[in-house]
Design brief:
The chain is α+β, with helices and mostly antiparallel strands and 289 residues long. It has nine helices and eleven strands. A five-stranded mixed sheet has the order 5-6-7-10-11. The termini are far apart.
Length: 289
């Protein structure tokens, strides 16, 4: 029994997850930001045909798994994937695959280059050991297609607008574009409500008179989100910071998690137990409260 457990742990490190069917595994593959080349897809399809049941499963975190790989075929399919340049995925007590939307290179709403950020994070953190699990997501704007608030560390592209009154002709385009009612025009006077503003930049994009300008553009950070049996929304800890600051905060968050977590705790459990002030001190940045 001990040998079987050790064998399964070895296979898990190579991306194989035990199925309910005895002797069968799903092979989880390493996908960065949901991107795979057409050549990758052909290689995965060949592997599924030869060693699985001719189909793949697309996971909720932009991953690919090849189910129904028999124990006898694990080495062969691993070799096939290695030759195709496709690494195994991550599971267990590790930093999981980094997920990202297409960002400003493709999406008209994108504020940041999500794929670039995702690749940088993946290169440094993917598969690294942590006390339990740690999930990272990158989304291009406050529409949050990647649900960054549901991740241990969420990165959102945001842009803070600045209203230049002398340029405004009160055409109403910005008010119409604002989906959260943060802009009002009454008796020919435009006012903004910063408490309602979600810093999406839609007002800036539609303004034709340069009355809505960029005051600050960057990365808004959420920490402590998770789904599962006890879901939590992440805490917005910093708003519209630079890329270097975002990476500093990520590094310090991971270090804080490693230094303070008890068995089975996620980062939000650590923050709950130790207190937000303790977390703030470790980050060395003043958090939004």
């Amino acid at each position: 029994m001990a040998k079987k457990s050790r064998d399964n742990e070895h296979l898990k490190d190579k991306g194989f997850l035990s199925q309910k069917q005895d002797g069968y595994f799903s092979l989880r593959l390493h996908v960065v930001g949901g991107n795979l080349t057409s050549e990758n897809l052909r290689s995965i399809a060949d592997a599924a045909d030869k060693y699985g049941k001719g189909y793949v499963h697309v996971t909720s975190r932009q991953g690919i798994e090849v189910p129904f790989v028999h124990n006898d075929n694990t080495e062969a399919i691993s070799s096939l994937m290695d030759n195709a340049g496709i690494a195994p995925g991550s599971s267990g007590k590790k930093i999981r695959a980094i997920v990202a939307c297409q960002g400003n290179k493709v999406c008209s709403n994108g504020i940041i280059d999500c794929q670039d950020i995702c690749e940088k994070i993946d290169e440094k953190y993917f598969g690294q050991p942590v006390p339990y699990k740690f999930k990272i997501a990158v989304t291009g704007c406050p529409a949050s297609c990647l649900k960054v608030q549901e991740n241990d560390f969420g990165i959102m592209g945001t842009v803070q607008p600045k209203f230049v009154e002398e340029n405004c002709v009160t055409c109403g385009l910005c008010k119409k574009a604002c989906k959260v009612g943060a802009i009002d025009i009454t008796d020919g006077v435009l006012t903004t409500d910063p408490d309602k503003c979600i810093i999406c930049g839609d007002c800036i994009r539609v303004c034709k008179k340069d009355a809505m300008q960029i005051a600050n553009e960057g990365f808004t950070i959420y920490v402590g989100g998770k789904v599962g049996r006890k879901p939590r929304m992440g805490i917005r800890v910093l708003k519209t910071v630079s890329e270097p600051v975002m990476f500093e905060v990520l590094e310090r968050t991971v270090a804080y998690y490693r230094d303070n977590a008890l068995e089975g705790e996620r980062i939000i459990d650590v923050i709950d137990r130790c207190g937000i002030d303790h977390f703030e001190e470790a980050l060395q940045y003043s958090l939004e409260k």
